[in-house]
Specification:
It contains 12 helices and 24 strands. With 508 residues, it is of the alpha/beta class. Strands 1, 2, 3, 4, 5, 6, 17, 18, 21 and 24 form a 10-stranded mixed β-sheet that branches. Strands 7-16-8-9-12 form a 5-stranded parallel β-sheet. α1 runs parallel beside α10, α6 packs antiparallel against α7 and α10 packs parallel to α12. The longest helix has 25 residues.
Length: 508
């Protein structure tokens, strides 16, 4: 294959710039060391520690909402006894991977990426970053890998609750949890019914006078043990990697089967989940509080490990109220039904604000990229945007499942580009493509619906799609050719102008 253009007179500073040192970024770094050991990379992490979500969230009981045999990486066994792990255990897992694989020296901590501009002539990204002291510098990279997640770290969803500024007690938000909030012996209301609220309520109930979970709409819950008995037994008799591989296969298969059966037979799924809730709550079961108006897996199924939320309700330490807020006053919450919830502490577990590309200003030759006008390509890249990949995890399974297969795909793509002498790879989509758009994002959850307008478009079929079927995607990405007639490979036509560490002034 030949390429037009003149020979360049410079090389980019690094081969791959990885944005974020959370699950996605660390997974990509590890894959690069395994599959592309001759390529250079750097992780840009705006926080002083690695971990992403698991470093940011410090609320009581913070834990995974997926089992760690699928939320863990394919290449690194999860060895803890609990498969539904707390935040500190996940951080320990990530730190161990980073240190054992010498990834830490590649992480640029307290370095926020402000912008990334694709230089077509140089076939590389010019990345402007900002240090903790406000100093800006520029780095060039051949490939940009966005492992920055999908929500805004600085601005959680503001539910615009009337009168909240009038409350005389404490108002806490899970995304900005203080070090030592004093809730012992106090009346607490947690607004929300998603994974965060369900995690916080039973833990705060251990020391609070009482905790009420105030919900507008009920949620479907799945109860499962925090410990995976099969995984723990296998580890006693088999090497850790083999035990992990078997457990991972089991859990992926079960997740896939449960999700597809729930969507195909919603009435049976409702009956099963309702039966389990009645068993867990006994006489405390309230049909109005635990019967959602939607079918299971139309929104993400909320995991309750060991039924801890329901144990707190059974013990009288917590309860669930289904109502709408009229307003908040100095002493508590007035509900639209006319009832009041007097309290000392309010926790606003009202959800996340989705964002795109970690709020980085992405452009091509100085022209802003509007990702909402692009189509997903293989759930990894974007139409007509060269040398850029992104991780948006599964809505119906563990985030890391997508991070693993995307990292593997990008590394194989980098190796293919090297083999054919290419310096750019662009999923080409013509202006008259004729693709229809699939408007269904996969789940009807509030944060998904609110952020849908920011996201790339989905076609009904691959490759122009962010699919929600890990088993299919894993096989598709492995077997579908890299050089599929859609990816267009190219070569730089000019020199790389920017140099590593070059100081730049912030834009006015």
């Amino acid at each position: 294959m030949g390429f037009e253009g003149t020979k360049r007179t410079g090389q980019p500073d690094i081969d791959v710039a990885i944005i974020g040192a959370g699950l996605s970024g660390i997974g990509m770094a590890a894959h690069m060391q395994m599959l592309c050991p001759d390529r250079s990379y750097a992780l840009f992490e705006r926080r002083p520690q690695l971990g992403g979500t698991w470093d940011l969230f410090r609320y009581p009981g913070v834990r995974s909402d997926s089992d760690m045999h699928t939320l863990g990486f394919v290449f690194e066994p999860w060895k803890h006894e609990k498969s539904i792990a707390d935040g500190p255990s996940i951080l320990e897992y990530l730190n161990r991977i980073v240190d054992e694989r010498d990834i830490r020296c590649h992480i640029r901590f307290e370095t926020k990426v402000v912008s990334a501009d694709w230089d077509s002539a140089a076939a590389c990204w010019a990345i402007t970053s900002e240090a903790a002291d406000g100093q800006r510098s520029r780095t060039t990279a051949r490939f940009l890998y966005l492992g920055s997640g999908y929500y805004d770290y600085d601005k959680p969803y503001d539910a615009q609750i009337p009168g909240i500024a009038d409350f005389a007690g404490k108002v806490l938000h899970p995304q900005f949890w203080p070090k030592d909030p004093d809730h012992a012996g106090k009346r607490v209301v947690v607004i929300g019914s998603g994974a965060t609220a369900v995690t916080i309520v039973p833990v705060m109930a251990e020391t609070a006078a009482h905790v009420t979970m105030l919900q507008r709409t009920p949620t479907w819950y799945a109860i499962r043990p925090a410990r995976d008995a099969i995984a723990n037994t296998l580890r006693k008799f088999l090497p850790a990697k083999l035990a992990y591989k078997i457990t991972r296969f089991k859990n992926v298969t079960m997740q896939d089967m449960v999700y597809k059966r729930a969507r195909a037979e919603p009435e049976k799924a409702r009956e099963y989940l309702t039966g389990k809730l009645k068993e867990a709550l006994g006489p405390k079961y309230d049909e109005a509080a635990f019967t959602p108006p939607y079918n299971p897996w139309e929104q993400r199924l909320c995991l309750v490990p060991d039924g801890d939320l329901f144990k707190a309700i059974q013990a009288g330490k917590a309860d669930v109220v289904t109502d709408h807020i009229e307003r908040i006053d100095a002493k508590g919450i007035l509900l639209k039904s006319g009832k009041r919830l007097d309290c000392d502490v309010i926790v606003t577990a009202t959800g996340l604000t989705m964002t795109m590309a970690g709020n980085i200003a992405v452009s091509m030759d100085g022209q802003p990229v509007d990702f909402s006008k692009t189509f997903y390509y293989k759930g990894c890249m974007n139409s007509n945007v060269p040398n850029l990949a992104r991780v948006f995890g599964y809505l119906n399974a563990s985030w890391t499942l997508r991070a693993d297969i995307n990292s593997d795909y990008v590394c194989r793509l980098l190796n293919h580009m090297k083999a054919i002498g290419a310096e750019s790879a662009t999923p080409f989509l013509s202006a008259d493509h004729g693709l229809t758009e699939d408007p269904d994002p996969g789940l009807s959850s509030g944060y998904i619906q609110r952020g849908q307008a920011l996201q790339p478009k989905n076609a009904p079929e691959m490759p122009w799609r962010l699919n929600q079927d890990y088993v299919f995607d894993r096989k598709y990405l492995k077997e579908n050719p890299l050089d599929d007639g859609i990816l267009r490979f190219g070569k730089a036509t000019g020199a790389v102008a920017a140099k590593s560490g070059e100081m730049v002034e912030p834009a006015e």
